[in-house]
Design a protein that fits this description.
Elements: E1 5-12, H1 13-20, E2 31-38, E3 45-48, H2 49-55, E4 58-66, E5 72-85, E6 88-97, E7 104-105, H3 107-113, E8 115-118, E9 123-126
Parallel strand pairs: 2-7, 3-6
Antiparallel strand pairs: 1-2, 1-5, 4-5, 5-6, 8-9
Length: 144
């Protein structure tokens, strides 16, 4: 299977909250459409410094990350970000990669939005088993 990219809308979720409270006009909410590599090997969503600046995202912390080659690196974590794909949305924080690095849609937002990589079409799709709503698994939860 080749590389899979998807058009994703990123929105400054802090701005959305201010707009909900009528402290910011909805037209002033910072948002943008980006193309992201759908990376099933990455847990976190990764944006680059350019997107961080354009969305004016707050630095929440710095974390150490282990890359696929075993190298340990330290990157900023920013957020909150609302992520939208077709009829799905979720809120996440994101790791900030240097410069204009390629951005990654990792497993956490994929799971939260209930989207899948379609291997034959090589594209990100809404889960066909529940196309109109997100359905999550709650393992370990039993009915009374």
């Amino acid at each position: 299977m080749g590389l899979v990219y998807a058009e994703i809308e990123l929105i400054n979720a802090g701005d959305l909250e201010l707009a909900r409270r009528n402290m910011l006009d909805i037209d002033e909410v910072k948002k943008m459409n980006v193309e992201m590599l759908v990376d099933s090997g990455s847990y976190y969503m990764c944006i680059n410094e350019t997107v961080k600046e354009l969305l004016d995202l707050n630095i929440l912390e710095k974390r150490k990350w282990q890359l696929a080659n075993g190298q340990i690196v330290e990157y900023e974590v920013v957020g909150p970000i609302e992520v939208k794909f077709k009829n799905r949305r979720c809120h996440v924080d994101a790791m900030v990669l240097p410069g204009d690095s390629e951005m990654l849609l990792g497993a956490i937002p994929k799971e939260d939005m209930d989207v899948l990589i379609h291997p034959l079409r090589q594209e990100l799709v809404v889960n066909p088993e529940h196309p109109y709503y997100v359905q999550m698994k709650m393992k370990g939860v039993r009915k009374p």
